[in-house]
Amino acid sequence: MIYVQPELPYDEAALEPVISAKTVHYHYGVHEKAYIDNLNSLIKDTRFEDMELEEIIRESSGPLFNNASQAWNHIFYFFSLNPDGGGEPSGDLRKAIDRDFGSFEKFKEDFVKAGTSLFGSGWVWLSADADGKLFITAESNAGTPLTHGLIPLLTFDVWEHAYYLDYQNRRAEALTKLWDLVDWDVVESRYF
Ligand code: MN
After folding, report:
1. Ligand 1 geometric centre to CA of 28 (Å)
2. What does the pLDDT read at residue 192?
């Protein structure tokens, strides 16, 4: 199977002023494309060739895991964002956020804090277990809750390439502004 980079459902400039067109261009158009190209060349003529991407991520390690997981994580991240996003979640997900974190405001605070305090490159995640309990986790490098048996719901990329062009070293500010772009309809659709 050859993995093809999905086209974003919005223009490169659509996420401004939170994320610049230049960042979307380099982050999705260059970095993410490279992960997909590497993934395709690493699986060619191997037992991974006909696996679904999630299966490759669960079964692999080293460079293949890194490229497969980064390919998946970036698609998940960029498709969670929407120029018309922001606001607050509702329904069962909102009830679970209030139950497990105290309030939506407290959840946002804890999520940004987890992403800001991760040393080096990685991702901060909201995910759920099979019972619907929610977790905030920070993962280094290409790490993903998929390998811990959790269901990913939302992620913010905390690699410097995600924010340095727009925010330089101000990671907390970059993460906080992302709330204006989160498409809660997409996130809720991942919660059972
Ligand atoms: Mn990235």
Report:
1. 8
2. 82
